[in-house]
Structure formats: structure tokens, C-alpha cells
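Figure-free illustration: sequence to structure, shown twice.
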Amino acid sequence: MGQVGFGRSTAFAFTVTVMVNIVALVQKEQAAWVGHSALFPLASLMLTGFHMFVLPYVAKSRSTRSISGVE
């Protein structure tokens, strides 16, 4: 599973945890762990998003260095 597959599965997990949070808010007794369950998938999405944002800049920097002969 590559970068895209991990991102899709993490987005799916985040969506499911948000749905569970919505259902839990309707219940009379709320568990504290339900409110925090979406934080791990959200953090994973944030880190992979930052990674995909930086990739083009790193690739451009590497190609510029290799063209100019600086290694």
C-alpha cells in the first residue's frame, strides 16, 4: 500500500470516527474516549498532507542541484 492507499484508508477511518462522534453526541451518556478517537486519524492525515505538500518542492530542489552539477 503506497502513499495514496494510506491516505485513502486514513480518510475513511477519520470519516467513520466523525460519524461515531456524531452518534455518541446524541446518546445520553457520552464516553470521553469517543471524543478523542478522531485525533489519531486526523493527525495522520495532517502529516501525510504536509508530506505531499513538500514533495514537489523537494523534487524541484533535487533536480536543480543535479542540473547545476552540485551534489
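We now fold a second protein in the same way, so the two outputs can be compared directly.
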Amino acid sequence: MPAQQILQEAKKLHRVSESLDSLAAQHAPISEALSVLSASVRKSATLLEVLVAMRLGPEPGLGPAN
């Protein structure tokens, strides 16, 4: 299903964002740039998740949160 594939890509982007955050903590000279890039990647991942939710609907079998 396309939604699952897109959500998998969003997960990958979240992992890349976490990795960039980790690198930012380790490399002070470029910390700010890495943090900015990390935030941009994280926002892209979130936008993919929103796109799936709005355009492709919820996954079958998932109900509202209790």
C-alpha cells in the first residue's frame, strides 16, 4: 500500500534527523548548521505523515485513540 511505503520513508527521515542531532552535539564548529538541517528533515518527515493522513486516510484496522 502506498501509505505504508510513504510512512516508512518518513520513519527513515526521522532517523536521519536524529542522526544529524547527534552529530551536531559532537561537532561544535558546525553544530548550528547540523541542527538547522536536522529540523528541516524532521519537518519534511512530519509533512509526509500529514499528507498520508489527509490524502490517503487512516490505516485499516486502526481506530481513534482511547
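Summary for the second example: Residues 2-56 form one domain.
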